[in-house]
Amino acid sequence: MPEPVSIDPADWVCPLPLREMKRIVLGHGGGGILSEELIENLFLPAFGSGGGPSRDSAVLTVASGRIAMSTDSYVVAPLFFPGGNIGDLAVNGTVNDLAMSGAQPLALTAGFIIEEGLELDVLGRIAQSMGKAADNAGVSIVTGDTKVVGRGGADQLFVNTAGVGVIPDGVEIGPERARPGDHIIVSGKLGEHGVAIMSVRAGIDFGTVVTTDSAPLHRLVAAMLAAVPGTGAIHALRDPTRGGLVASVIEIARSASVGVVLDEAVIPVPETVRSACSFLGLDPLQVANEGKLVAFVDPAHSEAVLAAMRARPEGVDATVIGRVVEEHPGMAVGTTPFGTTRIIERELGEQLPRIC
Asked: Which residues form the PurM-like N-terminal domain (predicted)?
């Protein structure tokens, strides 16, 4: 099978002219010649030989055992932001959803809701970014769908991705498995994705460019599992996207009927993120991330897991930030740098809407 060609999205040009059109028209979603040209001349070159959205379904060969499935929709605004765009975000996000159950990704689907008038150049750059991100993650985009809606119906572009992955034998990971005594580990610095979005959405200069942390995490998870084979030491994993760290740990605490204590003095938050959140009135612990994970790990094995994480580029800043307790089930409390304790509550809604 030929390797997909790696192309810088910034250098993308349409391989063949789509009837001299520079923007999406309603006919591109009508199932006729324009639809065919859009798929054959834009999406398939971007996604390589994995199959792409020319198929209504894909046939996959999987090893006997268990599979994980996930689906997510991406409506981030703006479409492009420092370090990424809606395309690579969609690929990485779905890969990470699979990884949080311990699965290694096998294949993805891609669905596009495209607003009439979107520039084909913009769509092409996003598709190329998706293909490059999939190639980087070692996964294929094997089938998909496109729909075109009238102006004002989709705010340029919405993307839906679904994924399937294989869970290795003996791996049992789930939020209900967290237990008192577990150490809580984050894989790195928090809040970068949310601040990257806000920097361009609000046009605010924070004195430096904050880039998204969007990245695939399945290789990091595989390294963590390999460090403690057969122990079942990794009880729960979560990627702290919408709602950030706080939403992730509270959701796990509620699922397992346990309490969580976080040491706020050691939680890794970059100073640029902390300053930006202070300026915007946001809690950095509730700002979205797209390339970080939270792990609940048996304390007897947490040092081995931590060492394995720090040996990977995705986990070089991994830190133990708290523990699981029997008290206050379903709640999180934080010990502050001043030695006080506070209840950490989730936001009623979203601090930053349309962040992913």
From this structure: 55-167
Bridging pattern class, strands 341-344 and 332-335: antiparallel
Residues in the chain predicted with pLDDT less than 70, given as ranges, are: 1-20, 30-31, 49-57, 349-350
Gap between the Cα atoms of 60 and 165, Å rounded: 11
Closest CA to 185 of 302, 103, 290: 302
pLDDT at 319: 98
CATH superfamily of 21-167: PurM-like, N-terminal domain (3.30.1330.10)
Domain ranges in the chain are 21-167, 175-344
Whether 179 and 324 have beta carbons less than 8 Å apart is answered as: yes
Collect all residues with Cβ–Cβ distance below 8 Å to 157 and sequence separation of at least 6: 79, 86, 112, 113, 114, 115, 118, 122, 123, 126
**Torsion angle in degrees (nearest 10) through CA of 197, 202, 204, 209:** 20
Residues 237 and 296: their CA atoms lie apart, in Å, by 6
Q: How far is 97 from 249, CA to CA, in rounded Å?
A: 16
Selection from 261, 245, 284, 230 nearest residue 341 by Cα: 261
Distance CA 162, CA 160 (A): 7
Q: Closest Cα to residue 239, out of 173, 302, 300, 179? A: 173
Query: Amino acid identity of 293?
Result: L
Overall pTM > 0.85: yes
pLDDT at 104: 96
In whole angstroms, what is the distance from residue 292 CA to residue 22 CA? Answer: 37
Name the CATH superfamily, with its identifier, for domain 175-344.
PurM-like C-terminal domain (3.90.650.10)
pLDDT of residue 21: 78
Cis before 78? omega within 30 = yes
Given the structure tokens 């304790």, which residue do they identify? Answer: 341
Backbone angles phi, psi at 205, to 5 degrees: -95, 115
Cβ–Cβ under 8 Å, residues 135 and 4:
yes
Give the three-class secondary structure for 145. strand
Q: Rounded to the nearest 10 degrees, how much is the dihedral formed by the CA atoms of 135, 138, 139, 140?
A: 50
